[in-house]
Amino acid sequence: MPACPCKKCATAIYSSHEHALRPPLAHPPGYERRSRLAHGRRCCTNYPSGCMRRSLSCASRRINFKRALGGNSRSVPRKSHPALLPTLSEHTMSTSFSPSHDHAAGAPAAPKYALRLKQPAFWNTPNPAMEERLLADWRATGQRRQVGAERQGRPRYWLLDGPPYANGNAHFGHLLNKTLKDVHARYASACGHAVTWRAGWDCHGLPLELAVEKRHGPQAKQDPLRFMRQCRDEAAHWKDLQAGAMSRLGLMADMDRPWLTMDPAREAASLSLLLELWQAGLLVERHSPVHWCPACRSALAASELERTVKERMETFFSVPLTPASCEAMARRARRNGAAWPEGPLHLLSWTTTPWTLWANAGFGHPRTGALTVATLAGGVRVVLAVQARDRLLRDDPSMFSHAGQGFDGALDFAELRALSLAAASPLTALEAPLLAAAFASESEGSGFVHLAPAFGPDDFALHESDGVRLDCHVGKDGRLVDVGPVPMPAALQGATLEVASQVSCAMLADAGLLVRMARRSVETTMCWRHKKAVFYRASGQWALDLHKGFDGCPEGLAQRALAALDATVFLPDDKARAPLTLMMSTRRFWTLSRDRLWGVPLPFFRHQTSGELHPDTAALWRALLDRVRTEGVEAWQACETPAGYVKSAQSVDVWFDAGAAWHSAAEDGGGQADMVVEGQDQTRGWFLSSFLLHAFKSPLPPFKKVMTHRFVVDEEGMKFSKEKGNAPDSAALFARSGADVFRLWACSQDVGDEMKWSATSLRQATQDAKDWRSFLRFHLANMEDAAHTARPSTLRDLDRLALRKLQAARAEWHACMDGGRFYQALGCLAQFRQWASAEWFELSKRTLYCANDGSAELASVQWALRESFLLCAQMLATVMPFACEEAYLAWPGHPRASLFLHALPAREAVSEPDAALRRAESMLAWRRALQPLVERTRALVEKGTPVCLVFGAGQDPEVPQDAQNPQNPQDPHGEERLRALFPGCFVLQGEHARALDMWEAGPVGDGVPVRVGKPAVRPHRCGRCRDYVGAALEAPGLCRQCVADMTPGVTPM
């Protein structure tokens, strides 16, 4: 008999009919040999530890039957290979009790018996290469179209894809978002819906213009038509790159026919909607301050802004009041019977934007409040609010030489309007009126605030109501320009806002007007693209009036959108509703115009001298529409300009393009989408624009359901960003771990909170993927092929209980999926998986491996496994499509070409369990209670200590006499049923329930005590099923059950 080739032992590893050692087996790539000896060294490394023909351990010379039967064991290889699958057989052990019984070298080999053990071509470890092959097969066979044809005529489910911007590579947020969308789409398809989901991209706007300028130089804009074509090519380039990265996720989206905002048909649809809004009187031109980004060189809408707190310099300065104003104030004070100083007075004012001082047009003050006169440290007497004087004294006592308490309350702000007061502008010396302003406050500054109507909406409101002068001396690039009426100093011309502030303060100091400068934290508005501060700048802009009524909707767009918002379902929670409600209810105008070329144009022709629009604007607009449908928006640059008119150089806000997606989606069914899934930042962008524009056409919401999600952060809680470079490389991640692992991680997160990505979370997702694959693999290894579809006439109670638990898990899964709580849906399935692995699978292994082929119990468990596999694979495939499709294709004789052609069976209410199921559940609960005792017993057995589990104490009349109860000492088959509940343990019951030494007791079930002790009878171990029995074994070393299970004609090998 050949000895072990490792030379460490003389154990015979083959049966006597094998005459020579086979050559060493070649291990496939990635195969890991993990079998180790008790003394820590490897043994029999030429033979795979995972195959059924295991070498014997040098330490114990025995076979670990649990590992052979597919149980959890660290020695099971991570990967198997078809080349390593030998004949399904198993060594036997000596029938003596001790598991460490030695076999003498050269002793006759123990016989081998046939077992039902299969090795499916589906491994526990995720395989990225297999995912790539499946992806290629799906593309080659047109799987998405096949599923669409299968669902033809079923209820439609339209998932509208909120378009990512076609600029740069796909980032982590894109992949997370597409994964969540795909889970929704696959869930709807599994429920039998005909899913429509076309991938979308936003392809207009400034970032693409900047990219083209960077690639072709700033002179690229000199030829507008060529520049726009270059922008179109740039967008197409990035769209293709992003689509390739997103496709690796296995999306069921239509990537071959994506919807792009730059498609000529969609550009024409947006232009048509814009024409309707203009004709309805909702698109209006306004000359007013708007948020302006010098980096964008364009106005910004509220949805393009972010807010932060930054430090700014608070500047206090004094300006002389006109002599007439000083006399008027003194007369009014004397009339009030109060003291007031004679002679010249200054006004103490303040600002946080010194660069606007050149455009000063007045000073605002509160409507009410007490005034006083204080003397500055330099001797200048200034008028200010009493409340402001007291605060400034606390902050800087050296600011005043005399606080002027004797003048407190001599005048009130309410009296100033009747006096028509004025002061000199600080830099230009032009006369500037003092005006009551609702936004001015005694609690800030000095009580008098500098007014520059071109650079603030509140100041501009005074320009409209009181005729305050409007001078805008800042250009599109954020630099100062000389626009009069007073010549601007050379130091200010062309200066940036920061430099202009410094120069203005220096001019105040030179004139002796600068009083105090101090840093102050103020809320600053930022451009969401450039993360730089923006400012208000007066310019002519086209805007959508959100409160103006129109035909069929007297309440206006905002109010109708608010009503539609109330009818929209938000998932997984309602957090996104509040900001949307706030923005809809507080915004009066939506500024649409942008000073950009690449986008849907505002096709207006304006007269060169009068500035009036062309009288045939509507006809010209409709003519342009016909050209845009074929040529795209480039047609606007190519069309001729009527004589005497100037063509508009403005385009529409990109959120208008994306927000009109429902209007231009007739090929998708148009109208109302069933679902949208976007990040929470879209509340100010795509969600808002979609609700407002849809309100123009319908009182219904544009989407039935809206799912929002938060963002991915790193281990330190920092948001992933390109600038920080803290996001992982998705291509490397997919190549190493596969897309299923990423999808499983994404769906295991609570998307309502920030989602943390770390090495730990990746390891957990990888382990979860292995657990799910192992779960599917057990089904494949033990169920019949797909041709066996007939339900057995009777099912075991355990199998019925398993299927009922699966139905209950499915009901919870549906509720969680409908609510967008994917992590909870996975949890429902994971709970079933854990229960099945610990109890259903564990207690079914003997039947699966050892039962006769004609056994009714075997037919029952195999059919139940088939039902479980199909249902679990379909539910899990929403999250792990690659693994489930691979498992389905590994099922011999699978009935369809793809798992995704199946639809989930109709939902059924989970029925109440009958008496048999309740009894089975009771038995399992009793078993779980005893599990700690059982594990300690098994550990002692593994160490060679002869112990047994003792149930009952002989004849006990108080024990129920239920013959089907394995705890019943009167049951003649009780020991067999107890062995089935506690495999691997030596069990004694009834009249054999005696032990020489009892030292540990477990829970009492139905009055039956359970103890651990040394057996009084000699145990025997079956050479086939490895169970311990008290009765003598049948020849040749088999228990009575195995003899009965052996099929006719099968003899020991």
Could you characterize what this model shows?
Keywords: Aminoacyl-tRNA synthetase, ATP-binding, Ligase, Nucleotide-binding, Protein biosynthesis. Residues 799-938 form the Methionyl/Valyl/Leucyl/Isoleucyl-tRNA synthetase anticodon-binding domain. One of its GO terms (cellular component) is cytosol. Its EC number is 6.1.1.5. It comes from Massilia atriviolacea. This protein has 1053 residues and is of the alpha/beta class. The protein has five domains: 1-110, no CATH class; 142-282 and 548-709, Rossmann fold; 305-527, Valyl/Leucyl/Isoleucyl-tRNA synthetase, editing domain (Isoleucyl-tRNA Synthetase, domain 2), CATH 3.90.740; 771-915, Isoleucyl-tRNA Synthetase, Domain 1; 921-1017, no CATH class. Helix content is 35%, strand content 16%. The protein has 28 helices and 35 strands. The strands form twelve sheets. The protein has a six-stranded mixed beta sheet, sandwiched between helices. A four-stranded antiparallel beta sheet has the order 8-7-19-21. Strands 15-16-11-17 form a four-stranded mixed beta sheet. α18 links the parallel β26 and β27. Mean pLDDT is 83; it is low at 1-107, 954-965 and 1049-1053.
